[in-house]
Structure formats: C-alpha cells, structure tokens
Amino acid sequence: MSVAGRVARIGLGAAGAWMGYAWLPHLLTATGTWRGPASSGAVALTFDDGPDPSWTPRVLDILAARGARATFFVIGRRAAAAPEVVRAIADGGHEVANHTWSHRSLWFCGPRRTHEEIARCHDTIGEQTGVAPRHFRPPWGMVNAAMWRALRRTGERCVFWSLQPEGQRAQSAETQARYVVTRARGGAIVDLHDAEGVAGAPARLAAALPAMLDGLLGAGYRLATITDVLAGAPASREAR
Predict the structure, then answer these.
(1) Is the model's pLDDT at 230 over the cut of 50?
(2) Which of 52, 191, 193, 194 does the annotation list as catalytic?
C-alpha cells in the first residue's frame, strides 16, 4: 500500500473512532431529560454559563421581584471565582446545577477529561452550597460516550431543554419574550444565558426577562426549579 493510501486509511480510522465516541452517543440523548410532565403546570427557566458577577445578581433581582424560582447551570471555574454569587443563587431558593468545570465541548474531551470536567464542577458546587447538584447540562448540548458513566458516578441527571429563545444567533429581547410566552407549555424547560452565549446575550436576557416572567405567570404557570418540575416524573432511562 502506498504512503498516501496508508495515510487515508489512518484518517478514515480516526474519523470513525471520533464518530463512535462523540457523534453516535447523540443518539442516546433521547434518554436524557428534555421536558417535565405537562401535568406539573410549571415551567423551568434555566440559566447557563454563569455565574457572572454583574449580570447574575440582576437576574436574581428580577426573579425575586416576581417570586420565581429557577435553575442555574454554572461553570465550575466561574463558580470558584465568584462563590458569593453562587451562594446568593442558593439563598434565593434557586437550584444550582452542573455545566462542567471549563465549558469545553465534550466532543473534544477524552474519558479522563470528561470525568474531571463533571466531577470538579460537582464538587465545587457541593462545597459552596452544601448541597450536591442533581442535574447536569453539557455545553452546547454536545455529549460523548464517556459522559454517561461520569454522570452515574456523580449521581446527576442529564437535562437538555425544550425551548431556546436565543441559540447561535442574537435575538432581540422582545422576540425572546414572545417566543417563550407563546410556545411554553406545562413542563417546558427553557434555556437562557446569564453569561456568555452569543455576544450581548446577558443584556438582552435582562431586558427580556420581566416580560417573559409576567407573560408566563399571567398564563397561570408556576416558575420552578428543574427538581420541582420533574418531581413525580419517571426517571429518564439514561444510557448504561
């Protein structure tokens, strides 16, 4: 076999291995949690990528003014840098959940790095709040074959989302609020960003949040944590 042929064969083998490790496991995301039971009468607002020392407290103030509870999927290294914000989240009656230590895509993490990303954030949250996190969300929703085993070790449930008003493209505050209010149903899990995301995302969120909350409350929904929304729901059949 020529050198070019050997190189091509190696390349195909590497691509196949990557697909098996990082792409095919996405078929198993159906076994994760995408929404709660419609009978809950509740909507779970979730905030990713914080804590942000400037924006997260503003979000907490808006939630508190309306008696709303939510879930914050925090990045471990940010939590370590702003423990007072994490404690404020927990003291406000909100849930603190795991969003990895560094927010690196799990597509590019081997088994050891995957375990470290999940376990280190898990431990940091437990140390800061006194409560071990029960839920995990992979950055960008990207999973790999090692993630499920790492979650079994920490005892966390993988949670995705059923509504995302702003993904990879910026959306105005008015558009985001309208999107959520008109599409929400009981058990909906809404993915929002109180830090990072698309450039300017936290500012747009802060502007959208009052109308979003008022619309959901006016429609009769409770605004609750993931744990509350999922209470009584069958455990997801996560991959073994």
Answers:
(1) yes
(2) 193
